[in-house]
Write a structure and sequence with these properties.
Blueprint: E1 2-8, E2 11-16, E3 26-36, H1 38-45, E4 53-54, E5 58-66, E6 82-85, H2 95-98, E7 111-112, E8 118-119, E9 127-131, E10 135-137, H3 143-146, H4 149-161, E11 169-173, H5 177-188, E12 193-197, H6 201-207, E13 214-216, E14 227-232, H7 237-246, E15 247-255, H8 269-274, E16 278-281, H9 287-299, H10 303-306, E17 310-315, H11 319-328, E18 333-337
Parallel strand pairs: 4-8, 11-12, 11-14, 12-13, 14-15, 15-16, 17-18
Antiparallel strand pairs: 1-2, 3-5, 3-9, 3-18, 5-6, 6-10, 7-8
Helix pairs in contact: 1-11, 4-5, 4-9
Length: 338
């Protein structure tokens, strides 16, 4: 099979490896689409210098082969199914995993492949192997949308962390890709209103097509009702300050966007105490979030929100162009189609 490996900043090569074998509880998937997120862009731009890396963790494809212990199970992925694939590795043994919080598994992610590449999903390839428990059928949706299963699962997780309820007023800080997904899922789950706060006029204008109740700059927060729950999808101390201004007394703030090299944010302890605010983080996803994301894709209710988020599609042979576009220009999702 062909597989892409980022070998240095601005450099990627196509390697040939044998089609991987599968175990009794595993599934072989022929990749139909792999979305590129910020991580792949940072790897290619040199902002995340970890090389050589087999990247690509937002994957959808067709099941080509299933392990012996999977073949006869009800509702298990079957040969021919279009699936979205969870490529996260969960050890199952650490304290978070045993406590039902495998999103923050203590064991290192990824591993080392036989060609010496560090695996960070390794979905920029013609095939991937995953445990059957992490392969989710999605019906007949466009594979480029099915590849959004991973970010959708992350946003499902975010909404759970924020205890979103039907009738809640919602504010989303940031109108990027994840801001769009938060808007779509908040709408789907019955939010009374959804306001998007974004500094960039171009992004504000773009998200208006998804019909939020308001798309405003931070200076206009006083013109909209305060929110029961605020989702912060960008990493900055200014965004957190905006969230504190946007949230209603007794409300919840979810810190979804994060950056390890971002400036430290200030959290006013007395204000959190006096206003009885709940501030929580949301990182990655759990298996139950994948189940929900797969059903959202299968049902088609989010299709009108997701289709405009496919910025461009490239064949695997042009993966260098796909990575360069992801690394260097504002995009939602660039999709590679092996």
């Amino acid at each position: 099979m062909r597989t892409a490996v980022i070998t240095a900043a601005g450099q990627v090569e196509i390697r040939k490896l044998p089609v991987p074998e599968i175990g009794a509880t595993e599934v072989l998937v022929r990749v139909a689409a792999c979305g590129l997120c910020t991580m792949e862009g940072n790897l290619y731009a040199g902002r995340m210098p970890v090389y050589p890396t087999a990247a690509g963790h937002e994957v959808a494809g067709r099941v080509e082969r299933v392990g012996d212990q999977v073949a006869e199970l009800e509702d298990a992925p079957a040969v021919g199914d279009l699936v979205t694939v969870d490529l996260l590795t969960r050890c199952g043994a650490c304290r978070p995993c045993r406590g039902g919080q495998s999103a923050v598994c203590s064991s290192p992610q990824g591993g080392m492949r036989e060609d010496g590449a560090i695996t960070m999903g390794a979905g920029l390839a013609e095939y991937v192997v995953a445990p059957a428990a992490q392969v989710w059928p999605v019906g007949t949706v466009d594979p480029a949308l099915a590849a959004m299963g991973e970010p959708l699962a992350c946003v499902v997780h975010s909404l759970r962390r924020g205890a979103l309820r039907a009738g809640d007023r919602v504010t989303v800080i940031g109108a990027g890709y994840m801001g769009h997904l938060h808007l779509a899922l908040a709408r789907h789950h019955g939010a009374r209103s959804v306001t998007v706060v974004e500094l960039d006029p171009g992004r504000r204008s773009a998200i208006e097509a998804a019909a939020p109740d308001a798309a405003i700059g931070p200076d206009l927060l006083g013109t909209v009702p305060r929110a029961d729950v605020v989702f912060v999808t960008i990493a900055s101390k200014e965004a957190i300050a905006t969230a504190l201004a946007a949230v209603a007394d007794g409300g919840r703030i979810v810190l979804f966007g994060g950056s390890p090299d971002g400036p430290p944010a200030e959290l006013p302890g007395y204000e959190v105490h006096r206003r009885q605010l709940t501030v929580t983080g949301s990182y990655s996803q759990e298996p139950e979030d994948w189940r929900a994301a797969a059903e959202l894709l299968r049902g088609g209710t989010l299709t009108r929100y997701l289709e405009p988020l496919v910025t461009a599609r490239y064949p695997l042979d042009d993966v260098d162009q796909a990575l360069a576009r992801t690394a260097g220009t504002p995009v939602y999702r660039v999709v590679v189609t092996p």
